[in-house]
Each structure stands twice: as structure tokens, then as C-alpha cells.
Amino acid sequence: MTVTPEEKFQTGLLLDLEPVVEKELDRHLSMAKEWFPHQYVPYGQGRDFDGPLDGEPWSIEQSKVTPEARESLIVNLLTEDNLPGYHRAIATVFGREGAWGTWVNRWTAEENRHGIVIRDYLTVTRAVDPVALERARMHHMEAGYEADHGESFLHGTAYVSFQELATRVSHRNTGKASGDPLCEQMMARVAADENLHMIFYRNLMAAALDAAPNETMRAITDVVKAFQMPGHSIDGFLRKSVVIANAGIYDLRLHHDDVLTPVLRKWGVFDRTDLTGDGDKAREELAEFLEGLDDAATKFETRREERRARQAARKG
């Protein structure tokens, strides 16, 4: 079997970065806090549903969370549901041996708690239609998950560096917008996990930048320009994402200011002096893209404020 130059490069990079993975894994385990999903679910509010138990059917009046948060909670949970696909994708790239494999399994175990606690909360509190939620889960998982950049280690690690932070922001803001203090507490707990995951990947990517600056810079730019959340294949995702953006839970401004900018600043991509050739070209592309994204975010904010002003005027 012939080994391509790209495969040889990736294998060498994985070997070079294993000490970094060991260090970051130790740091993660020292910082991660044990917590239990059942402690965030108000089981005392639960009652039987219709079906074999002949309970009370779900109706929209039973939901205590805001409509915008309800849409966001559904998207967030369905995204978490595709964990088997994410595990396969990351295990394929990182492998199952040594510190790489230990991290993959630890990350998967922590992520699994998120789906458990959110689903239990939504079901017990009757926050969403459980039948529609289960049908959406089946549809979403049947669609499967494929990483946008295949089995590229650099592209995959760049993606999760941003995606974990994006998920943290979305979870945290969903809780704040829910109108339920318990939901906010639960989502803050989930977001804290996502933040630690982001730090692991961000620090790993920083080491990759030092080891292979031009190739890593190209991967970062490719990922930023084509970035989409892993739940983009959810049925009705576009409509839901518009509702979420209009509510300020996750929008272009947050994506630019609170996700892309802080990670790129931490990596010091615009201050590096070791980029040449395609690496330097990729950085120029990135700067141009960020400028356009900033302009688009400003336009979206302006239109949103105009809509809100019109709605307030009509109500007045």
C-alpha cells in the first residue's frame, strides 16, 4: 500500500504532538469537575405522557421556556445526539492508542452527559413536544455525520477549536434566554465542559502552528471560511437558526467577536513571523474574510434593531 506525502506528513505530526496531548490531557483531568445529570433534572415536576401509560398528552401551554430558547434547546440537543458520528470522526483522525485514544474516549464520555441531561430536562418539564423531538432525532441521526474536511488532522482540530467555543456560547445564551433559572443553571454546567474541551483543542492547535506553521495556517483559514455548526443537517435548521440569531442567542456578531476573534488572537496568527508561501497567502485570505464577516454582522445587527423597533411601534 502506497503512503501519500499527505499521509506521511500527518503521521509525523501526530507523533510529534503526542507529548502535547499527554500534557493537555493531564491539565484537562485536573480541571474537569465531576457532575451528575440527574441533579439538574426536576423529576418532581414529571408526570406520565399519553401512550402505554395513558397519561397526559403534550401541549404547547405546558412549556415554560421561551419560544426562542425552545428552538435553540432542540437544535442543541439534536446536535449532541450525533455523538456516535463525532466519535467515529475524531477517533479516525486521532487514533485509539496512547494519549490520543484516552482523550477521544474521555471527550466522548463527557459529551454524552450533555445529551442525557438536556433530554431529561426537556422531557420532565415538558418544554418541547417529545414526539416531534424523537422523530427529529431519528431523522437527524439517520442522516449521519461526515466531517467537512475528511480525515485531515489539522482541519479537524481547527474545526473543533472553534466549534467547541461556539457550542459553549450557544448553550450559555440558550440558558439565559430560557426564562427558567434551572435551565440556565443546567446549560451553564454543560457550557463549562465545552469550554474545557475548547481549551484542549485550542492548545493542541497552537502547538501544531509551531510545528507546521504554513500547513496549519492553511487549515485554519479553510475551516473559518467554510465553518458551519455540526447540526446544520437538522431538519428545518435554517429556520431555527434565524430564530436563534434574531433572539441574540447565536448570531454573526457573536460568531465573529466571541468565537473566531479570541481563538485567533490566542494563536497570534496575525503576529506570526514564520509564515511563508501558502501560509502567508492563507493568512491574507483569512484577514479579508474576517473583514467581510464583520461587515455582514453589522448589517445583520442593524436590520435586527430596525425590526425590533417596528415591532415595538406596532405594539405601542
TrEMBL record:
<keyword id="KW-0443">Lipid metabolism</keyword>
<keyword id="KW-0479">Metal-binding</keyword>
<comment type="subunit">
    <text>Homodimer.</text>
</comment>
<dbReference type="InterPro" id="IPR012348">
    <property type="entry name" value="RNR-like"/>
</dbReference>
<feature type="binding site">
    <location>
        <position position="194"/>
    </location>
    <ligand>
        <name>Fe cation 1</name>
    </ligand>
</feature>
<protein>
    <submittedName>
        <fullName>Acyl-ACP desaturase</fullName>
    </submittedName>
</protein>
<comment type="similarity">
    <text>Belongs to the fatty acid desaturase type 2 family.</text>
</comment>
<keyword id="KW-0275">Fatty acid biosynthesis</keyword>
<dbReference type="Pfam" id="PF03405">
    <property type="entry name" value="FA_desaturase_2"/>
</dbReference>
<dbReference type="InterPro" id="IPR005067">
    <property type="entry name" value="Fatty_acid_desaturase-2"/>
</dbReference>
<keyword id="KW-0276">Fatty acid metabolism</keyword>
<feature type="binding site">
    <location>
        <position position="164"/>
    </location>
    <ligand>
        <name>Fe cation 2</name>
    </ligand>
</feature>
<keyword id="KW-0444">Lipid biosynthesis</keyword>
<feature type="binding site">
    <location>
        <position position="111"/>
    </location>
    <ligand>
        <name>Fe cation 1</name>
    </ligand>
</feature>
<keyword id="KW-0560">Oxidoreductase</keyword>
<dbReference type="GO" id="GO:0005829">
    <property type="term" value="C:cytosol"/>
</dbReference>
<keyword id="KW-0408">Iron</keyword>
<feature type="binding site">
    <location>
        <position position="80"/>
    </location>
    <ligand>
        <name>Fe cation 1</name>
    </ligand>
</feature>
<feature type="binding site">
    <location>
        <position position="114"/>
    </location>
    <ligand>
        <name>Fe cation 1</name>
    </ligand>
</feature>
<dbReference type="GO" id="GO:0045300">
    <property type="term" value="F:stearoyl-[ACP] desaturase activity"/>
</dbReference>
<dbReference type="GO" id="GO:0006633">
    <property type="term" value="P:fatty acid biosynthetic process"/>
</dbReference>
<dbReference type="GO" id="GO:0046872">
    <property type="term" value="F:metal ion binding"/>
</dbReference>
<dbReference type="InterPro" id="IPR009078">
    <property type="entry name" value="Ferritin-like_SF"/>
</dbReference>
<feature type="binding site">
    <location>
        <position position="111"/>
    </location>
    <ligand>
        <name>Fe cation 2</name>
    </ligand>
</feature>
<feature type="binding site">
    <location>
        <position position="197"/>
    </location>
    <ligand>
        <name>Fe cation 2</name>
    </ligand>
</feature>
<feature type="binding site">
    <location>
        <position position="194"/>
    </location>
    <ligand>
        <name>Fe cation 2</name>
    </ligand>
</feature>
